Amino acid sequence: MPLKVGIVGCGRITAAHLRGYLELKNNGLLGDVIITAMCDQIKSYAESWLKRGVGPSPIKEVGPPGDPMATPRTFLSDFQPDVEVGVYTDYREMLKKADVDAVEILTPVFAHHSIAVDAINAGKHVLVEKPFSVSVKAGWRILEAAEKQGVVLGIADALHYREDARMTKWAIDQGYIGRPQVYIYARGAGYWDPDKIVAETPWRHIKIYAGAGITADWLAHRSHLLNLYYRKISEVSAHVDILSPRRKTVDETGKVVKEVDCNVDDTVLAILKHESGTLGFLFASWSLHGVTLNEDRVYGSKGCLVGDKLVSEGKGEVSLRELFNREAKQSLKEKFFPKGITNHFALEILEFLSAIKEKREMETSGKDGLREVAVAYAMIESSRRGRAVYVDDVLNGKICDYEMEINRYYEI
User: Fold this and answer.
1) Do 399 and 373 form a contact (C-beta atoms < 8 A)?
2) What are the domain boundaries of the chain?
3) Cα-Cα-Cα-Cα dihedral sign, residues 21, 25, 28, 32
4) Which CATH superfamily is domain 3-160+343-362 in?
5) Residue 379 φ/ψ, nearest 5 degrees
6) Maximum C-alpha span of the chain
7) Fold classified for 161-329
8) Centroid of chain to Cα 100
9) Nearest 5°: phi and psi at 83?
10) What is the pLDDT of residues 236-295, one digit of tens each?
11) Backbone torsions φ then ψ of 101, nearest 5 degrees
């Protein structure tokens, strides 16, 4: 019997996910998996991905080259031309009528917990786009439902499966820099700075809908990798701010076509402490003017990683990719990049499908997704309180002042 997947939320990120399925198909790794249902409140969005050149056009891509939301359009007909796909505007109807075993939730974050819990209670395996949930309490609802039903629950932390992330984790685990001691990570003055509406989706800047700003949205991926590289982030001391209180989208003529008043963070500066003892300095902003800031390095007891370069005792300076290709075991390379696939969305989807078939937890589990939300909210709580905050205190609800408004709104 084939494994049947339904997709809920058919906006821009859908392109990256469908491209992943196509990569798996082209490399003989999709197997008997088929997508049987597409669901979006806007029917034309769901219909737009069915067949190339037929029906409404998919929503226009946004972002710089390489951004997942700027992925070239892939259609279901590109990899399953003979499969009849149901189209729905209500996910509840899809869960009742469509023949699906698993659900990918690609909606805005404020809908994640409702859809995920309903899908899980219907016995479906679930993959949730990041951020995992609009609040920590909402995330616990998803996690508890999955544990009760015994289904696979994963978070779409695609960066986990990227080449650079895999290679960095490998180099650290192999001890090339010794014990990781201090890292520096800083990003700013990028594509969405200083006052653009991020991804042209105003809800990202409104607390009730986004939960938080850059701390939860963009940094979800980074906190996941930091937890992966150096063990869990245990303590946070941070300052968050809103440097651009009003953001806008302009058309080709320079006319403002959208504006939004922002009440979630767009800038964060944090000192992070890990269970391993590693200390980190993190800065990120969507509101800087001028030259792009791009800094990523970690110092250990025997060397350091600076971007894609390794500098260590006995190795000198070497490309991380060159070192991995030369010294990593072939079995590990095949595990990380089966059939040579390096598309991280394809690898993420393959891991989800494999976890279902093998009845195991994903590498990027729901537990990981919930902890990423807790790290983001710990940053905000630390800033509001003017002191360091333990991530576990946010995770277990001991500290929850910031999210109380959100939880009341959704009656969580």
Assistant:
1) no
2) 3-160+343-362, 161-329
3) positive
4) NAD(P)-binding Rossmann-like Domain (3.40.50.720)
5) -60, -45
6) 62
7) Dihydrodipicolinate Reductase; domain 2 (3.30.360)
8) 23
9) -95, 130
10) 999 999 999 999 999 989 899 999 999 999 999 999 999 999 999 999 999 999 999 999
11) -105, -25
